[in-house]
Each structure stands twice: as structure tokens, then as C-alpha cells.
Amino acid sequence: MAIASPKTRRGETSRAAILSAALDLFQERGYEATTMRSIAERTRVSLGSSYHYFPSKEHLVLEFYRHTHELHAAAIAPLLRRDKDLAARLRGTMRSVVVTCEPFHAVAGSIFSTVANPSSPLNPFGAAAKPLRDEVVALYAEVVRGSDARIPADIAEMLPLTLWLYQMGILYFWIFDRSPGRLRTLEVIDETTDLIVRLISLANLPLLRGSRKRVLGLMKSIVEPPS
Amino acid sequence: MAIASPKTRRGETSRAAILSAALDLFQERGYEATTMRSIAERTRVSLGSSYHYFPSKEHLVLEFYRHTHELHAAAIAPLLRRDKDLAARLRGTMRSVVVTCEPFHAVAGSIFSTVANPSSPLNPFGAAAKPLRDEVVALYAEVVRGSDARIPADIAEMLPLTLWLYQMGILYFWIFDRSPGRLRTLEVIDETTDLIVRLISLANLPLLRGSRKRVLGLMKSIVEPPS
DNA sequence: GTCTATAACCGGATAGAC
DNA sequence: GTCTATCCGGTTATAGAC
Description:
Two copies of one chain form a homodimer. Chain A is mainly α.
């Protein structure tokens, strides 16, 4: 099920070569147009050998996903050190997501749908994706934690996971975005990050207390299944 | 691109037979396990003939979609005539969605992901799905319109589309739901429909006016692209 | 012009020898 | 760990039947 880790030096090399060829080809031709045969050919390895390292084409996508996550984390590190304003941190982080992913815009659609399949081992909500999911959620935890915003504990608890989900929503919007420079997505990001920060500050209103408790309770029950 | 409509009596019959076999097999074996060859075989038609009526396996899914929508619309008709309370109408409608779709729970996952692909002709946000999407949105417009709730015009305008989106969210949750009798989904429906109605009534608070205007403006700009 | 059928093609995946 | 040969299923080309 999981991706095999090579046991020998030679295996290490082959695995890296296959992965690198795959990432290149995904960008050059898109996901569907990249055949396992073409990946093997460029790596100068047989088709069967590719399957020794990656049990399916989908598993190459998971690595692809990790690749962009690492680019993203590196890109926003300076911002997270520098800026303490929550709205600015959130806006900068989200803008950086779409900038980082821009080279893969054409591929993103098919990858998204591949990954959306609940029976896919790569489904973001599933077990196989947990390590990476945890990393991304941790990144959003850092976005929140490093800010000077005073956030009620019950909200702070659910916020990172919520922002991870929000990021997926933005990415789905971005996939459809045909505007020049992906300007519409950037506008939506500016507007929604502002609204999120505003909503957090409003959540302390006495009139909203009840709904807030219910929303957070619901989220918690979803994240931690009673079973 | 679009599904060919048969020109002759005989074609009519073949098309209906293929569709019916496909719907049966999807339920019996799931989407992936149902091969185009098995559909053709059960219909006692050649593989090539199936492709005369349905340009791809995905196009059979669109019909599947329409089928469940019609079941759903019929199921909630009495409720919509009888009950005027918005929360009750919404709750009843959503509960009925998952009840109607229950026989297809096992298939739903792969269908969802097929359809989530932005480059799929069947993507719910795309052009090919527009007729069906409009029907579903109209159904939610009726849920709202037939209620005795007094809803500000700007909210009422965006509400049907929002509820359609909300329905998709609930269905995605339902796909993952392994609880007996799909009880957790029903709980989430009860809780969220209540919250939605509450949120609508809160939206008139002076303190929320600003955010409400911004949220609705954002939604509108997304639905009606400036291009 | 409308339907049906047969025979391929293509690409993801697997079996099993070395 | 690497290979070749093969399977399997969605899709297409194309020729004939009504």
C-alpha cells in the first residue's frame, strides 16, 4: 500500500530518477497525457520497474503534492518570521499557495479529481495522506500561533484544520480561474482572509456565542468520530 | 459532446435499455467494477453500439445523476406543499437527499470524483451540467420561496445557489459516513440546517451588515464573472 | 442518415522469470 | 531490483445493415 522505500543505493537512485521524470512530465504534458510508459522511457527503466517503486500512478501524485508543499513552506518562512498581523499572515500564506502552484495549474485539475476520490489511497482525508495532511495543518497552526491576534481557545483549537480546508477550497476555485495572472483568485483570497479575521473577532459577540459554540462543537464531533 | 438523442423508435428502445442496464450494474457492482462491456452484454448490444448513444462512461453518470434528482424531487413534493417553516423544509429536503441516495452509497464515491474533475464534461460547475444544475438550484429556490420566512432580498437572491453548494458538501460528508443508518450525516444535517436558518436571521444585526454585504458581493462576483 | 457490429488501439496494472 | 509478456477495460475506426 505505502510507497516502498528502496533498500539499496542503486534503488535509491532509480526511485529518485523515476520521481523526477514523473514530476517533469506532469508539468510538461499534464497528468493524463503522461503515461507510465513515458515516465519509464525517460528514466531509461522498464515499465515494470517503475511499479516496483510506485504501486500506482496515483502514488506519484502524492509525491508531487509533497513537493509543492515543501516549496510553499519555504516560500512563506520569511513572512511568518517577519509579520505578526494575522490577516497579513493568512493573506500572504494563501497568495503564496497559488503562486507556488501556478506552474502546475494545467495539471491541477486532474490531480484534484484523482485525489478527491474517497476510495483513492491518496484522499486527503484518508490514512495514507495523514503525514502530509498533518504537516500542512501544522503550517496553518504556525500561521495562527505566530500572530499577535488574541483568539479564544475553542476557536484556536479548530482554526488550523479549518484553514487547511479553506486552502483546498481556494485551490479548487483557482483551478477554474482563467483570468489573466489568476487575478480573480487573488481577489477572492484578499476578500476571504479579511472576512475570516473579521469573523473571528465577531465571534465574541454575546449574540453569536450560542452559534459559535454549536459550530465548534459540530466541527469537533466531525473530526473526532464517536466510533 | 452532448448525448445523442435517438431518431428512431428502435434507437429509443436501445438507448433506454443501455441506460437501465448501466444504472442496475452501477448499483450492483459499483462504478469501476461495471465495465462498458458488461453493460453492453446485459443489454444484448455490441460494445460499439453503446458508444453510439453515450459518448463515454461518464455520460452515463450524468443520467444517473438526473435519475436520483428526479427521485428526490418527487420525494419532497408533499413536504414542500405542506410545511411552511424554513428550517423544517430545509431539514426535510436534506434528509431526503441522503435517503434517496442511500442505495447508491457504495457507488457515490467514485462518481463524485469522476464528476469533480474540472476537465470532465460532467463537472457540476461546467456547461454540460447546466440544465441539471439549474433544476436542482430551482428546487432549492422553491424550498426558500415557499417558506414563511422573511428573508432580505440580497440574501434570498444568493440562497438557492448556496444551498445547492451546501447539498454537495453534505453529500461528500455522507460518502465518508460509515455510521449505522448514516446517523452521523443526519445529525450533521439537523445541526447545519438549524445554523443556516439562525445565521439568516442574525444577518440583520447592524454589526453584521458590513460582512454580509461583503460576503454577498463576493458570491455575486464569483457567480457572474466580470469577463 | 440511423443503427449495429467487429476489430483494433492505448495505457494502467500485474505475473513471473532472471 | 529489473525485465518481458500479458491482461484488462475505456475508447475509436470503420465497415456493413436497416
